[in-house]
Amino acid sequence: MSQPTSPTAPSPDVERSVRDRYSSAANERESALCCPVDYRTEFLEVIPEEILERDYGCGDPSRYVREGETVLDLGSGGGKICYIASQVVGPQGRVIGVDMNDDMLELAEQYREKVGERIGHHNVEFLKGKIQDLALDVRALEQRLEQTPPSTFAELEALDRWTVQQRAERPLVESDSVDVVVSNCVLNLVRHEDRVALFSEIFRVLKRGGRAVISDIVCDESVPVEMQNDPTLWSGCISGAFEEHEFLQAFEDAGFYGVQLVKRDEQPWQTVEGIEFRSVTVEAYKGKEGVCLERNQAVIYRGPWSEVHDDDGHTFVRGQRTAVCHKSYQILTRAPYADQLIGIEPYNEVPLDAAEEFSSCRPRVRDAKESKGADYRTTESSEGGCC
């Protein structure tokens, strides 16, 4: 993942500043922490006013959640997005909120039973953990520290071994368990040095074919070091903002595909020392890992560009039948590419267990005879004709 352009990382006071400021904001609304967001009002009616007042976001990733899905909300705060998503996914779905702030978790948990009764189902839970370390159950760690506080170096080593074992055997969020990860104006609060781990964890917990939908604050220029070292600006979602292009690159570097801006505010939320800070929502998919198998499949790029390139350097020329491996075919014939590409299946299906390795990682023109079969000699007219 791209490293921050500035040579100095934020000071250690950043995490404490974020914790203290959001603890205060959980008890009394702080208008400086949020952008104007147009939420769907039909989902707000069951949510208590106290949660609505103390919600601090810059977008609405819940708009991209679907019925029946398992949703993970990073930095869930007072639970607003979780309670909206709960209604969207329905009783067959599941919603998990993760946050490190005790005051925010208490606010969210306080109304969990009441909101569930109003909705008609209970499918929300709130967990305590760092979003850059979704394997470690912080409540379990706190319980162990209370029972066995380390006082020697040997006991510290034992604690380290315990946390390693916990991450492996009892992860807070299991690998490949979530359909969609959402977050609302939280990733920018994570320190630069933890961001590779942050995107790696998002990737880890998603199922193959799952997606991340993240609303966050980005900037149009790099943030100066002196602003990065200001804990107040950091906790205010300013000095930790990603540069816009680096934000999208972070998803690609973590292994995601189909990375796209699904929403970008035209007007900046704030401008500080000439730097514009605005809200964006990014969608990115997991699932391009794995072997490439030849099943005689092809895709045709519809246009309007003369040609396009994917993240792996493959070129798709408008109107041209392009050979792709089975893995790529599955990816390119579903969201977010399905509207741009036409899938061509062979007339004679090649079973997966009989498929050989795809001969080239670079797509080539697929001769129509490869799709139809060399012995295809049919002469016929479609029933009813064309006109």
User: What would you say the CATH architecture of the largest domain is?
Assistant: 3-Layer(aba) Sandwich
What is the share of helical residues?
Answer: 25-40%
CATH third-level topology of the largest domain:
Rossmann fold
- The tally of beta strands, per DSSP, is 16
Number of domains: 2
How many strands, what sense, and barrel or not for the largest sheet?
Answer: 9 strands, mixed
How widely separated are the two ends? Answer: 55 Å
Low-pLDDT runs: 1-12
Report on this model:
38% of the residues are buried. Helix 1 packs parallel to helix 4. A hairpin with a 2-residue loop joins strand 8 and strand 9. The chain folds into two domains: 238 residues, Rossmann fold; 80 residues, Ribosomal Protein L9, domain 1 (3-Layer(aba) Sandwich). It is α/β, with parallel strands linked by helices and 387 residues long.
Question: In terms of topology, how is this protein built?
Answer:
Blueprint: H1 13-27, H2 49-53, E1 70-74, H3 80-89, E2 94-99, H4 102-110, H5 112-119, E3 124-128, H6 138-147, H7 153-169, E4 178-184, H8 195-205, E5 206-219, H9 225-228, H10 231-235, E6 242-243, H11 244-253, E7 257-264, E8 270-272, E9 275-285, E10 293-294, E11 297-301, E12 307-309, E13 315-317, E14 321-324, H12 326-332, E15 341-344, E16 356-357, H13 368-372
Parallel strand pairs: 1-2, 1-4, 2-3, 4-5, 5-6
Antiparallel strand pairs: 5-9, 7-9, 8-9, 10-16, 11-14, 11-15, 12-13
Helix pairs in contact: 1-4
